[in-house]
Design goal:
homodimer; about 200 residues; globular
Chain lengths: ~200, ~200
């Protein structure tokens, strides 16, 4: 029993190092980067990688889930540190990054003949991100800076839809579409503007 | 030569009647409705239908193009009759209807093994609708009710993306997403609100 705690701590540290290294290497060299590039950066043996993630798609999926967790965990921290509108829009910027990452990585899951949907990734996204975004929207509504008639599920569908790949358009184009949608989350103008008449 | 003019007028009238009838019958009975239902309503013979549209997909495509033309032609009329913001949002409501129609009909083009893209439908939409929407956005910008940093192409991509079919969500869900995006087309709040300080 006394030995179990450090071993478990080691395993958790190795897993965290692997996910962090894999995320960086995927971004730099693509998802087909050699396993040794990842394990060297993580400071673990290749055996450790394959014990945790027998297939490359297992590792890709774990990296995406880790990103989703980070995104969800950021919400309460943002609400502590910033004004509600700033917290909400910064969080949505993070969601845009997440979707951009996922877009690149999800292609691998498909190529590996494994639909991300079959991994329950959509359910995982909703389960983790909807409560996080609910908190941000509620704080914004209380402060009068977010319209009352939009729920978290709408935003969680709208952002990925607007970032959907479109022929001859890059991610910057999608970001411009998202920016307009996000500005539309403010309360209707009539509640803001005092009529000049 | 004297006989050519009435003949051409007859042909144009028959074609218009066929398209109007087909649009109604498709909406009521689906795109597999019997040809005779369409020709009876149009008051023409079945031979006239098949001479103009040998395949069902030809007729479906013509109905969609006709809807696109109607949508484009509505823009200048709306600008004459309404305030710029009202004209813009009413026109976008029409675009939502068009995309909803197209969504149903496009499935037939696919089923007929003919990608709408191969018919140049996307190019047709952009070619007809982008100038129409440009005029509406420009009028809104001149009146100070539309933000200056959005172009027609963005809106023409954003609306269909937000109306994209999503599991377990109906078209009303997509309309709610579009409504938020459209409200985001207003100028940024800072230009509207007089600071209370």
């Amino acid at each position: 029993m006394p030995k179990a705690v450090p071993r478990r701590a080691d395993a958790a540290r190795n897993l965290g190092a692997l996910l962090a290294a894999a995320k960086e290497v995927f971004a730099e060299d693509g998802v087909d980067a050699p396993a040794k590039t990842i394990t060297d950066r993580a400071g673990v043996g290749v055996g450790t990688l394959y014990r945790h993630f027998p297939k490359r798609s297992d590792l890709v999926l774990a990296v995406i889930r880790h990103e989703i967790d980070d995104c969800a965990d950021a919400a309460p921290r943002l609400l502590e540190a910033r004004e509600p509108w700033d917290a909400l829009t910064t969080w949505i910027d993070g969601l845009v990054e997440l979707v951009g990452t996922k877009r690149g990585l999800a292609a691998t899951l498909h190529a590996d003949d494994q639909d991300p949907g079959e991994h329950g990734l959509s359910a995982y996204i909703v389960g983790r991100l909807e409560p996080a975004l609910d908190g941000l929207l509620a704080a914004g509504r209380r402060a009068g800076v977010v319209r009352p008639d939009v729920d978290a599920a709408e935003v969680l569908f709208a952002v990925p839809l607007l970032l959907h790949e479109v022929p001859n358009r890059d991610l910057a184009f999608g970001r411009r579409l998202v920016r307009v949608y996000v500005d539309g989350l403010r309360p209707p103008v009539s509640e803001h503007v005092t009529s000049p008449h």
